[in-house]
Specification:
It is a single chain. By secondary structure, the chain is an alpha/beta fold. α1 crosses α2, α3 packs across α5 and α7 packs antiparallel against α8. The chain has a five-stranded mixed sheet with strand order 1-3-2-5-4. It contains 13 helices and five strands. It has three domains: about 60 residues, no CATH class; about 100 residues, no CATH class; about 80 residues. About 5% of the residues have low confidence. This is BTB domain-containing protein.
Length: about 300
């Protein structure tokens, strides 16, 4: 006897997988969620029947049972769309560096390996727009924990807003640290190039902000006794940090080392605090998503 799976009360049709499992399903659920199943059932009425089990019509599909079970569970009991925490979104978009962008673990989202299979099935079986939007919302929920995969999937599906969100979490590590196998998830050279442009632009912009920031801007807060020594410490540290900048560098945090050397002078310490705060603010304004890049931006040329 072939194995059989049922999806609750009201099942009125049998679909059989390529490996022989029989699935008792509700036609209304399948028709409501899938254009392909609507077309299949239209072929079965009133005269066409592919197989018969007692009084039940049956339809053979070429999918293995594990995939059909996943699809049918989704069609019979679709989850709610994933709703992101707006506070997390706002926080992530305002901070200066990747190191302080909040990683949100989507505990209630569909696991990414399952989601990728469902998205493939959704395309093959032409799932309804509400079901697609549900899947896409769950995909977006994984942007901070699996940004490269989400970016690649989103690009392939034409989901620009989700790809842009994921790109914000791809500031670290440097793109050169990904293996060829990992990068293959990005389906187009243009999409990979946009990430390169984002990193290149941020490094240049952060360096420009850093080099231009003075510890005593226009002489404000200047300590008469230690100004030369303090300025020398600040400028020396700037040169070091500027040479080490990456797309995700927290420039203000790297410059904070100067503060530890100014404890003996309250005036200099206060000026350093103000300078670090201003540096952090300016760095926070540097773009951090691919959708913020100007169309004409290219590597090797400042925008």
């Amino acid at each position: 006897m072939p194995s059989s799976t049922s999806y609750g009360a009201g099942c009125d049709f049998i679909i059989r997988s390529i490996d022989g499992t029989q699935f008792r399903v509700r036609r209304d659920c399948l028709e409501a969620g899938s254009q392909v199943f609507r077309d299949m059932f239209a072929c079965c009425e009133p005269d066409f029947v592919t197989d018969m089990y007692g009084d039940d019509q049956a339809l053979d599909l070429t999918e293995p049972s594990v995939l059909l079970d996943l699809l049918f569970r989704f069609l019979h009991s679709p989850p709610e769309s994933y709703v992101a925490d707006e506070t997390d979104e706002e926080d992530a978009d305002s901070v200066a560096s990747f190191t302080r962008i909040r990683v949100v673990f989507p505990g209630s989202a569909i696991p990414l390996p399952v989601l990728s299979v469902l998205i493939t099935l959704a395309d093959k079986y032409a799932l309804s727009q509400p079901l697609l939007q549900c899947l896409y919302s769950h995909l977006a929920a994984h942007a901070s924990t699996s940004p490269l995969r989400v970016y690649g999937y989103a690009i392939g599906l034409g989901l620009d807003s989700i790809a842009a969100k994921a790109s914000m979490y791809l500031l670290h590590p440097p793109l050169s640290e990904y293996s060829p196998e990992e990068v293959k998830v990005i389906p187009t050279a243009d999409a990979y190039h946009r990430l390169l442009l984002l990193h290149d632009h941020r490094i240049k912009a952060l360096r420009e902000v850093l080099i231009g920031e003075s510890i005593f801007p226009h002489g404000y807060g200047q300590c008469v006794k230690h100004s030369q020594t303090t300025t020398a410490l600040w400028e020396q540290r700037k040169r070091v940090v500027a040479q080490q900048l990456q797309a995700a560098t927290d420039a203000a945090a790297e410059m904070a080392e100067v503060q530890t050397k100014l404890d003996a002078c309250q005036t200099c310490s206060k000026a350093c605090t103000a300078a670090l705060s201003m540096l952090d603010y300016k760095c926070g304004k540097v773009l951090k998503r691919v959708d913020q890049l100007a169309p004409e931006v290219s590597i090797g040329r400042s925008s």
